[in-house]
Design a protein that fits this description.
single chain; globular; about 260 residues; Rossmann fold; alpha/beta
């Protein structure tokens, strides 16, 4: 079976446009490199793209089988990267238990009404020593707060005003996807955090660059939040959170703790 790579020109253009739009192009490259290092030496690697949409976000050098799941039949039809397609909801679809070496869920959690259920389902699907790659909005940011408290029609108007080619999808932005809560849930379910980063996305950066007066107001608000929190609050510009989680191999850990005299 062929390796997963974005060789098709149309898919490549979609991914390039999306990365530029989100302002996370370099972040995707960093995550791909980190994941490939963690997977080094493995063979027959299986990948699940959860909420895969029409194209993959990352490139993994060792993947031999890729599966994509999405609730949109149209998006799945446009995806020519994954080898197996599942029409379903990651919040309740019975994914194969410990069936995947890598699970990617990028820009999906904010659109789920029950993100905790979705995360637990994904946790269950990762093999021991496997990786779960997550990308989702940081609610404690300018964009996160504004998106949470405003309706979809206003988001659509904003995107049109900014002349974006993409249109916003409905979001729930449940408090369950606060970065600290996601990391705690992961830890409670046997995962360690091997990579975490907050970055400023393209929407916020473009908005600040275009409207200097709003950039000034945002800067003042950010400085106040830093002062009030004594520097503990991350900058409010950082509206995207990226995580790489690694699932503990309980069997291997148990064997390493056994008394050698038992053998």
């Amino acid at each position: 079976m062929r390796q997963v790579s974005v060789s098709d020109l149309a898919a490549d253009r979609r991914i390039h446009m999306w990365r530029e739009f989100m302002g996370t192009r370099s972040l995707h490259d960093v995550i791909s490199e980190k994941a490939n290092l963690l997977l080094e030496g493995r063979s027959n690697v299986t990948l699940l793209e959860a909420g895969c949409g029409s194209a993959s976000r990352f490139s993994f050098t060792t993947v031999v089988k890729s599966v994509g799941i999405d609730i949109s039949k149209e998006q799945l039809a446009r995806n020519n990267v994954v080898q197996e397609k599942i029409l379903g909801d990651i919040q309740n679809y019975p994914l194969t238990r410990e069936g995947f070496d890598i699970v990617v869920c990028w820009d999906v959690l904010e659109h789920l009404s029950r993100p905790r259920d979705g995360l637990l389902n994904l946790f269950n699907a990762v093999k021991p020593d496997g990786l779960l790659i997550l990308g989702f909005p940081n609610l404690v940011s300018f964009k996160g707060i504004v998106t949470k408290i405003t309706p979809l029609w206003l988001h659509t108007c904003f995107y049109r005003h900014m002349k974006y080619r993409f249109r916003p999808f409905p979001t729930y932005l449940r408090l369950a996807i606060l970065p600290n809560r996601v990391m705690k849930l992961a830890h409670d379910n046997g995962f360690s955090i091997v990579f975490s980063r907050l970055v400023e996305g393209g929407v916020t950066k473009n908005f600040r660059d275009r409207f200097w007066f709003m950039n000034l107001i945002c800067s003042l608000v950010d400085k106040v939040s830093q002062a009030v929190s004594f520097g503990k609050c991350p900058p409010l510009y950082l509206d995207n959170c990226a995580l790489i989680l690694k699932k503990e191999n309980k069997k291997a850990a148990h064997l390493s703790r056994r008394d050698p005299n038992e053998f």
